[in-house]
Write a structure and sequence with these properties.
GO terms for molecular function: 2-polyprenyl-6-hydroxyphenol methylase activity; 3-demethylubiquinol 3-O-methyltransferase activity; polyprenyldihydroxybenzoate methyltransferase activity. Pfam families: Methyltransf_23 (PF13489). This is Ubiquinone biosynthesis O-methyltransferase. This protein is of the alpha/beta class. It has a single domain (10-236), classed as Rossmann fold, CATH 3.40.50. The chain is built from 8 helices and 8 strands. The protein has helices at residues 10-19, 31-47, 65-72, 84-97, 108-114, 134-144, 160-173, 190-197, and strands at residues 55-59, 76-80, 102-104, 119-125, 145-156, 202-213, 218-222, 229-236. Strands 3-2-1-4-5-8-6-7 form an 8-stranded mixed beta sheet. Strand 6 (202-213) and strand 7 (218-222) form a beta hairpin. Helix 2 (31-47) packs across helix 3 and helix 5 packs parallel to helix 6 (134-144). The radius of gyration is 17 Å and the shape is globular. The model has no long low-confidence stretch (mean pLDDT 88).
């Protein structure tokens, strides 16, 4: 299969490969990921009804920030990514932290064919806006979770406000992210995400926005504000 068949954008991967060595530096270009990770982790743990003892797949795991934190909550975690350097950094960090996580360089679609219905929880955070076919990744995530299991997505809404805050503000004015991190045309409206979810064997049960106050530098979840960053919970029905 070609890399495009595997739903890979090499240019997107190279962005994160170049920065991989700084992934675990909380004051680096990945500061935002470190800052929002507690919110993402709590959202997943709450939505999953706990992580302890559950088999979890982290799709697009990068350097492993979320993967490790879920493992620390008692989950058996596999993290997958198509970037070689971020995965090496993730593996090296487990040697330092002593946290057990299995990492693999494999497309989510290939893993879905290999291990269908194998995970209690699947997370796919900040990845959908970086692949050529978000619908393909969503379908693969749905096939990987067992009946009754939960799938969690997070991505960026596409509207003028999100362009101003997530691209102009975060990348060019405040320098919170490297310039060129995001391609605004790939941002995903909640209605589009839900439309890609509906044909699969999972269904949406919750959406919650994530807001940022630049004065207090505090992130928080807000179910009434999906304007920029937002998280989604899905469940695979036991008969699906």
């Amino acid at each position: 299969m070609t890399e495009h068949t595997h739903n890979v954008d090499r240019a997107e991967i190279s962005k994160f490969e170049e920065l991989a060595s700084r992934w675990w530096d909380p004051n680096s270009e990945f500061k935002t990921l470190h800052d929002i990770n507690p919110l993402r982790l709590d959202y997943v743990e709450r939505g999953a009804g706990g992580l302890d003892g559950k088999r979890v797949l982290d799709v697009g795991c990068g350097g492993g920030i979320l993967s490790e934190s879920m493992a620390q909550r008692g989950a058996q975690v596999m993290g997958i990514d198509m970037g070689d350097m971020p995965l090496r950094i993730a593996e090296l960090h487990t040697l330092e932290s002593g946290v057990e996580v299995e990492y693999r360089r494999v497309p989510v679609e290939a893993l879905a064919a290999e291990q269908p219905e194998s995970f209690d929880v699947v997370t796919c955070m900040e990845m959908l806006e970086h692949v050529p076919s978000p619908a393909s990744a969503i379908d693969a995530c749905a096939r990987l979770v067992r009946p009754g299991g939960k799938v969690f997505f997070s991505t960026l809404n596409r509207n003028p406000k999100s362009y101003l805050l997530a691209v102009v503000g975060a990348e060019y004015i405040m320098g919170m992210l490297p310039r060129g991190t995001h391609d605004f045309s790939r941002f995903i409206r909640p209605s589009e995400l839900d439309a890609w979810i509906r044909p699969t064997c999972i269904r949406t049960t919750d959406m919650s926005g994530m807001t940022y106050n630049p004065l207090t530098q505090v992130y928080k979840l807000d179910p009434h504000n999906l304007d920029v960053n937002y998280l989604v919970t899905c469940v695979r029905d036991t008969h699906g």
